[in-house]
Amino acid sequence: MAKNKKIVRYRKPFHLNIGLIIFGIISIYILFYIYSFFTSTHISVYEVIHGTIAVNNSYTGLALRSEEIVTAEYSGEINYYRRDASKAGVGDLIYSIDSDGAIADQILSAGEDSSVLSEESLYDLEKNISEYSNSYQPESFYQVYNFKNDLNAKISESLNMGALNSITDAVSAAENNSTFHKGTSPKDSIVVYYIDGFENVTTGDFTPEMFDASIYNKENLKDRLKVDAGDPVCKLITDEDWHLIIPIGEDIQKRLEEVSTVRIRFKKDNTIARVPFTILEKEGNPYLILSLSHSMIRFATDRYIEVELLFEEETGLKIPNSAITTKDFFTIPMEYFQKGNDSNADGIVIRKTDKNGKHTDSFVTPNIYFATEYSYYVDGEELSDGDIVLKPNSDETYTIHETAKLEGIYCINKGYAVFRKIDVIYQNAEYAIIRNGTEYGVSLYDHIALEGNSIEENVIISN
User: Fold this and answer.
1) Alpha-carbon distance 80 to 72, whole Å?
2) Bridge partners of 273?
3) Buried b (16+ CB within 10 A) or exposed e, 383-404
4) FRET partner for 127 with CA separation of 20 to 30 A, picked from 258, 338, 384, 453?
5) Of 141, 147, 131, 145, whose CA–CA distance to 439 is shortest?
6) Strand partners, 348
7) What percent of the chain has a predicted confidence (pLDDT) above 90?
8) b/e per residue, 8-32, with b = 16+ CB within 10 A?
């Protein structure tokens, strides 16, 4: 009888195939790379280089503005409450006239006491001193005197206003007796305290003799302690649009024949602007008439302004025009910024209100891309249109809404696009020369996107 044999299938022991695992990992990596290649943004890269091609022309121009002289309605001792070349809104107090001198003496006496300065005034002064100290550079030592004069003017303005507020009962009594009179601004304007006889000159009736600075006579209105009725007390500049007239030669006239704008540098502060112009011939001589809509307040006290015409060449960083683009930014007044969160970075306090009316305040430090005389340009990454900003040491608020464009490029040093502001000095058909060392700007050897309009900010870039 045959034996029953049970056949058991032999099972091979499991062996881990390292080669197969490595092949799988490589396959996954290749698939991920292919996926990233087709889904990420591809952009050509340009490395910022340095270029030097400088030819400049210096001129002295005659500044013409919309100016209105304000005259005194009464006689008496005069006090001023706004510093020279400062903004004044409708109804803002500019000066006062005291017929019998009683209030003026009290203002003088109270103004010698620094304790009348408000906390807000002290904060503004401290902020101005701190900002100047942090930005001071030895090569710009001459600006110390400008800063000193501006600071003294601010202190004087604050002291006079504080002194006036400290004697309100006496002021009210004098106003009732018609011995004390306040002069306020009838419109939004810039207040200056000089007259020179050029207030009514226009771009159509100026004369060549007006460019002779040696015969120019400028009267400082703040030199007087008393005025008579009808005397000029201040001057209001009522329009941001102004003109700068420059006598030029025929060579410059020919160079400007085929263009409608020109780049200029203000020698007073080295700021650069591109402005439209016209050329007018008067008595056989050509005059360049620059039409400006900005920077007026910086030169409100100057009748003659030195500028350089930047035609074809400058020194700076060279980039292709295709890299240049624009971006919208929120503009927020500087006075709403403060230090916070144990940091030296400037930030703002945002107030959010829920549906139950409960307020929640938070301190944010938005990226600052540019600064004007009064505002910071910030992006909208941490802010939204309609956000409420609280002013330090004040109950005032500001609603974020106003926007402005900045010209710039997209820097991709870190593998993603980041907007950087640029200051174009000269531009031809293919390339632009931009200023080196600008704050919030571009540096030598930075990698930038060659086509600035083809990418989005913060998107990962593949070369």
Assistant:
1) 13
2) 264
3) beeebebbbbeeeeebebeeee
4) 384
5) 131
6) 364
7) 34
8) eeeeeeeeeeeeeeeeeeeeeeeee
| Percent of the chain with pLDDT strictly greater than 70 | 80
Task: Count the Cβ atoms, other than its own, within 10 Å of residue 295.
Answer: 19
DSSP letter for 142, please: T
286 bridge partner residues: 281
Using CA atoms, how far apart are residues 435 and 315, in angstroms rounded to an integer? 7
Contact residues for 71 (Cβ-Cβ < 8 A; gap 6+)? 229, 230, 231, 232, 233
Interhelix angle 143-166/168-176, nearest 10 degrees:
70
Dihedral (Cα; 212, 213, 214, 220), 10-degree rounding = 140
The Cα–Cα gap between 331 and 368 comes to 10
Cβ 434 vs Cβ 425: under 8 Å: yes
Q: Are 180 and 98 in contact (CB under 8 A)?
A: yes
pTM of the model: 0.53
CA–CA distance, 319 with 378 (Å, rounded to integer): 24
Q: What is the pLDDT of residue 223?
A: 83
